[in-house]
Design a protein that fits this description.
By secondary structure, this protein is mainly beta. Strand 5 and strand 6 form a beta hairpin. The chain is globular and about 55 Å long. Helices cover 6% and strands 25% of the residues.
């Protein structure tokens, strides 16, 4: 006898990861003394505009020359090897800060970006987004993914360069100025 089973939702992804997923130095893709070191920081907000204090963020990126690292050992920081991966739990006011390098374009004319994954309370699955660097307007205009996003929402994917040279990127899970989140064909809901 064949029964049709009703799918059930997945378990919320947070805040249960706090004891296992964060690791020492996960927010430091490079040492802050690295000549090209840049601070990527921001706050994760909920739909009411309140900080979400129990989220975890992962970033993946190319190096400053646009090379995607093939190095093993993303969870081990040896001070020399750039793996292009970082993970950090936000603090008690939803703030995060990574020390990394501004990624280079992975091909000539491409818009450099950092891929970000968001885990947070109430989410049944993780969320994916991109953080584009603000400087190369021509590359941003030509980017296929960014061009596919409605013009009034594109700014939610572009970091803001601050006076100190750092990159500011706030994540808004819902509501006004909600960050554009991506869906990958290979990823099941």
């Amino acid at each position: 006898m064949s029964e049709q089973l009703t799918p059930t939702p997945g378990q919320t992804v947070g805040p249960f990861y706090g004891y296992a997923l964060p690791f020492d130095g996960g927010e430091n893709l490079v040492d802050r003394t690295h000549p090209q070191a840049v601070r990527l920081h921001g706050v994760v907000y909920d739909g009411n505009g309140d900080p979400v204090p129990d989220s975890l963020l992962e970033i993946w990126q190319a190096d400053e020359h646009g090379r995607i690292s093939q190095e093993p050992g993303s969870l081990i920081r040896d001070g020399y090897t750039f793996t292009g991966f970082g993970r950090q739990a936000v603090d008690n006011v939803g703030a995060y800060s990574f020390t990394t390098v501004a990624p280079g374009p992975t091909e000539p004319g491409a818009a450099p970006f950092i891929a970000m994954t968001v885990f947070a309370r109430g989410l049944l699955n993780r969320l994916f987004t991109r953080i584009y660097l603000p400087e190369d307007q021509e590359a941003l205009e030509r980017d296929p993914l960014l061009s596919s996003v409605p013009a009034d929402r594109r700014e939610t994917l572009i970091a803001r360069r601050e006076q100190d040279g750092s990159l500011r990127f706030d994540v808004r899970l819902q509501g006004e100025a909600e960050t554009v989140f991506l869906r990958y064909p290979q990823h099941a809901d």
